[in-house]
Amino acid sequence: METGEECRVLSIQSHVVRGYVGNRAAAFPLQVLGFEIDTVNSVQFSNHTGYDYWKGQVLNSDELHELYEGLKLNNVNHYDYVLTGYTRDKSFLAMVVDIVQELKQQNSNLVYVCDPVMGDKWSGEGYMYVPEDLLPVYKNKVVPVADIITPNQFEAESTSSNVRVRVQRLQEERVIEGSKIKQ
């Protein structure tokens, strides 16, 4: 970024008391790089859900809407990027899409980066670590609106039926931020 140029990011992800995932992992590096970052915590947990036990709260769509309305009332809802990650509530996720669409109407250059944190593969088997009712919201609402998605293999296969075919067609090409780069 050039000196004096302000780039604003709205990051809607998880927050954990112990550990570094979600907004705990994203905010500081982006600030070091010179971005102004506003965070909304989709959940607030004691630790990430890979532990045997975790406790905390899940933000719902009404609470997200209330926070966003506060930003709008103060005219501080102008962003260059939206970054989303882990959530556990399908209505919250649908509200995220509504907010992104509104922000894109204000700024046609806004870039929406979505990490569809849903699950992973362990020993070849897929495993969801969020409620399964989030999957259709990701497939039908989030992915079509996102400019960049950063899924792992399980998430890519879950949100697109054509992933394996596309990977086979790419062969020795790599996809980086939507561009094909020859090796």
UniProtKB/TrEMBL annotation:
Pathway: Cofactor metabolism; pyridoxal 5'-phosphate salvage; pyridoxine 5'-phosphate from pyridoxine: step 1/1; Cofactor metabolism; pyridoxal 5'-phosphate salvage; pyridoxamine 5'-phosphate from pyridoxamine: step 1/1; Cofactor metabolism; pyridoxal 5'-phosphate salvage; pyridoxal 5'-phosphate from pyridoxal: step 1/1. Keywords: ATP-binding, Kinase, Nucleotide-binding, Transferase. One of its GO terms (molecular function) is pyridoxal kinase activity. It comes from the Eukaryota. The keyword ATP-binding applies. Belongs to the pyridoxine kinase family. This is Pyridoxal kinase. It comes from Phrynocephalus forsythii.
